[in-house]
## 1
Amino acid sequence: MKNRKKRKLDLLVLSDIHLGTYGCRAKELLNYLKTVNPKTLVLNGDIIDIWQFNKRYFPTSHLKVIKHITSLLTNGTKVYYVTGNHDEMLRKFVGLRLGTFEIVNKLVLDLNGQKAWMFHGDVFDITMKYSKWLTKLGGIGYNLLILINTLANWLSQKLGRGRISLSKKIKNSVKTAISYINKFEKVAADIAIFNNYDYVICGHIHQPQIREIKNKNGRSVMYLNSGDWIENLTSLEYKNGKWSIYSYQEDPFAQSLGNELLQKEVNLSKADYKNKELFNELVQEFKILQLSSSERQN
């Protein structure tokens, strides 16, 4: 790995990684994670895609992302796992604490005297609440579209035309047509203002954003969205009292790590032995975390 110090961050927010799906850009995410050193990491929902989970598809690169996060835990980083709709099964474990790891549905952090309210955002999605079967069907369609998009990108790059994003174009046009994103942001902001929060931080809609939103009474809140690691490849970074949107596509250093950090995987069977080794390492690290947690309680 090229010699450069990791960037220190007070807080890093990631969401919508969708590990376990074909569209997940785990290799790029791992490259990025190896360039930063956060004091606190918030995983703001849809990290492991349990909805679309397929036991036949969980490449080494996806497992390495989990391994890297556990290594952050053992090195003292506080990690909050905020549940989302695609990993809603974890909501039954809300309240679980293991060392510096905690599972929550929502989170309020004090940032230099200002209150930051964090949650995934699916609670505002009516289709999720009342027509989950339809939403899941749509999720399968979106996942298929990602596969088509991947093949189209490969062909486009071979022809020298660069990457394209069919799913993003379709998703943006549909969302714009029904004003879904604007409504989502407004609802989140209104509730945050009512509860006197300074920041409201979401994921879910795969639209990275930092903007001030005012209500009809002139009160305002800073709305932030961390985007995703399917198409936008973005996160939210907080350092020295300032927020910024990180974009992998604008980070040539992280991109340059790809060939050094990861080997191209042809299929899961060839990576199976590596996965078993990584899984055993994960088990050992969780045992260390569990022991550390027990010692603190005693």
Note: The two ends are 41 Å apart (CA to CA).
## 2
Amino acid sequence: MNTYNPARMQAKTNIAKNKAGQNRRTGTNPVNKTGAGPKRKQSAGSRQNTGAQGKRTDSNPRQVTVSIWIIAAILFLLAALIIWPHINDKSSPQTGAAVPSGSYCYGIDISRYQHDISWDSLMVLTDWKGRTIYSKTGAKDIRPISFVFIKATEGSSMKDKRFHKHWKNASQSGARRGAYHFFRSSKNPVHQAENFIKTVGQLSPGDLPPVLDIETMHSGCTAEMLNDRALVWLKAIESHYGRKPIVYSSASFISDILCDEIKNNYPVWVAHYNSTAPRCSNWNIWQFTDKAVVYGIDGYVDMNVCSRSFLKSL
């Protein structure tokens, strides 16, 4: 039988309060003794982030790098195909100066700047407008190269580094060859003649006469001094080879500077870049352009014409 005891009830109350205080200090949950709180529902954003991370981990960095290099290589090749024709056109022009009207023999003059020559293929191709061209398919007329002048020397000591190669190959081209000397009015004309003779050597049957290229006068030189020194060279060369040299110069230089002794006693090769004939009447060879296109030579080249009778007389 139970009887109400106030002292016992007070003791039970005190025991319950003490347990509640201990739980609050230790952080335990009297309801969930395992310590696991209520589970939170995962948000949709978290699930999407987790999925994206999973996809990134699955990709292969090496495959991505290889793909980038392949794309870069393709773009480079496309750019090269677009740009190269423009670069190539500058070094190998397809159209050049027009040829003068008339029945002429055609020739060129070259130096170390023309280094890639197909000697067995040289020819002058012209289109319907009379312009020199490189394409055989667009050619209206085809003419042979009948003669070629090659730079041998300059001044008293300079030698063209490609002269001997050009000289040898020209002999196998079918065109008649000749050598020229660039005159320096400040240098001893005897030494200049010796430089030419030593470099060129003896001429072969069919070779053209030597040429004296007179284009400049050094500071302090007069026309009289220039002509006197040029005549020394011309006479020394004529005496050595037994052939009268040709004198090359511009139309203005010929009429204003060169003396009558030179113009009247030596064949004249005039540089006159025009489609009409030079104003000096006594010319024998006419260099009409420095921008001709010749099949067999890369780049522009000087082109000349002369009469068939004059070339035959040399």
Note: The CA atoms of residues 120 and 291 lie 21 Å apart.
## 3
Amino acid sequence: MKIVRKVLIGVLGFALLVVLLFFFNVMWKSPPNFKVNEYKPLEIPIMDMTAYRDIMQTHRRPYIYAITSKSGGSVHVLGVEHLNNSNHPQFDSINSIWKKVRPDVALVEGRLGFLFTWFQDPVTKYGEGGLTSYLAKQDRAKLYTWEPTRNDEIALLMKDYSVDKIAMFYSLRPYFSKSRSGKVVDPEGELQKLIENRTDYNNIRGVFKSWKDLDEMWKKDFPSIDWRNYKDEKGWWPEGYLEDLWNASNLARDEHLIQTILQLVGEGKKVFVTMGASHAPRIEESLKNALFKNICKTGSSRKKTIQEK
């Protein structure tokens, strides 16, 4: 009986310790998705990735602007590079704008995972999303990922694409990302793990039982390319339905981001959102137009460069 009591006390003590570590932001869990109550129609479409190619090399970085609404709500949009070097100047911009704005709500890109701050650095681990999350937790601001849920995103893509193509896209997206940063040592093993992890969602679960199933489909659809060593430094996909899916996925994500901002700003919140550099210019005109009736001021949060003048 004494042994049982000691075990129970130990378990309860450990559980209490974990709760306290999360409460005091020593340990982090993934930020929740934001639930949009109603999708409002967008008069100006979001710029797709094909059109973005024309400005990709010339737009400013970081791409920062702000919109203030008559409701009192506002949004500061910061489009930056996905970097993990905490000494990069873009992190100074994030810090300085946050301190100036002191937002109510922070939105980050991606589904950031677990973090133990005693042993892991937020920026080194999660880049701009890590720093934004850190600032939000320090100020007790609300924190969300601006991504739609994976199930919602899949449902949107299913309107135009078959489940096997969608399953291939989600399996290979992290593989190609990893491949761009270096050679994958065990391509088949890596892909098998990604299939099991990245397709464990409604409608695409079990589409591929093995990497061999995906490999067979790939050979039929992309016979001149080996997925094992496919690499495009700019992140573009092979021409065809995978490139179309990549574009459609980005548009679905960006629309959810805009709808999230519209709802929060409409509620009078001060919103601070970080994202990859490509998203900020692509949503800009659509977002400004959607907020137009309530806008009292728009502007950039940085001085113009000589080229922009």
Note: The radius of gyration is 22 Å.
